[in-house]
Amino acid sequence: MRIMLLASDRVQGDSYQLSVKERRYLMKVLRLEVGALVSARDERGSYYEATIKDRDTLSLKPSDKPADSHTDKLTAYKEALPVIHVYQGLVRSRRNEDAARMMVEAGVSDLTFITSRFSQPGVDDAHVLSRISTVMDQAVQQSGSETAPLKKEVMTFQDAIKSAKGLKILLHQAAVGETKLLPTLLDETNIPDDGISIFIGPEGGFSDDEVAMALAQGACCSLLPTNILRSETAGIYAVAVIQAFWSRIRHS
C-alpha cells in the first residue's frame, strides 16, 4: 500500500477509526506496529501523516504531502505527471474495471466513462459503478496515484467532447484524412496548461458523425504506432506515449 484512503464517516477530528479490514491489512499484511507512520489522504484530497495510535485508531496530522512514512519509502517516481483527462468508451463487463485500474496506476488526472454510437449500453447499475469506484480506490492505495475519484455518472460522447479541456485527441482514423500518429501529433503541438483530453472509443471505435463532431470542437484524430489494440489496451498505451513525451520535453 502506497497511501491509505480515509473514509469520511470515520474521521473524528484528529483521529481515524480503523475498519476491521483496514486493521487487518496494516497489522497482518504490512506487519506494521503501534507507532508506525502511514501516508493517508481523505476524500477531499487532503494529506495526513497518520500514526497507528492503537489497534483501532490512527492519529492524523495534516501534511502537504507525507514524505517520511513507512508507505512512502517505497521506490517511486517523484516528479509531476502531465495533466491527462481520459474519456473511456464503455466496453464489456469487467474490462471497464481493468481500464480504470490501469489508468489510475498510470496516474492520469481523471477518468470519465462515456457512451457513443458503438459502445456498450450506459452503466445505469449503481452496483457496477460502485465496483469500478472500489477498483479505482484500491489502485490509488497501491500506487499512490492522485487520480480524482470516479464521476458518478457516465457522459455521452457529445457532452464530453464539448466540455473536455486542453488538447482534445481522439484515438481514431479520421474519415477526412487528418489523422497523425500520436508521437508526431505531440511533437507538432503545444500542450496547453490544462493538459490533454484523450478519447478512447469502444470496440467499434467512433462513428463518422462523432468524428465530425469532434473535429468541429477542435479535436485531433490520432493513431498509435502499433498493432490494433483492445480499447483498454489502447488507452493505457496512449497514456504511456504521452507521459514519455512529457518526460523527454521536461528533461531535454
What does this structure look like?
By secondary structure, the protein is α/β, with parallel strands linked by helices. The chain has two domains: 70 residues, Hypothetical PUA domain-like, domain 1 (Ribosomal Protein L25, Chain P); 168 residues, Alpha/beta knot (3-Layer(aba) Sandwich). It contains seven helices and 13 strands. Strands 9-8-7-12-10-13-11 form a seven-stranded parallel sheet, sandwiched between helices. A six-stranded mixed sheet has the order 1-4-5-6-3-2. Helix 2 packs parallel to helix 3, helix 2 runs parallel beside helix 7 and helix 5 runs parallel beside helix 7. It starts with a strand and ends with a helix. The model has no long low-confidence stretch (mean pLDDT 89).
Q: Which structural traits does this protein have?
A:
2 domains; alpha/beta; Ribosomal Protein L25, Chain P; 252 residues; Alpha/beta knot; elongated; 7-stranded parallel beta sheet
Number of strands: 13
* Shape-level CATH architecture of the largest domain: 3-Layer(aba) Sandwich
Number of domains: 2
Average pLDDT, all residues? 89
Secondary-structure element string: EEEHEEEEHEHEHEEHEHEH
Calculate the terminal CA-CA distance, rounded to whole Å.
33 Å
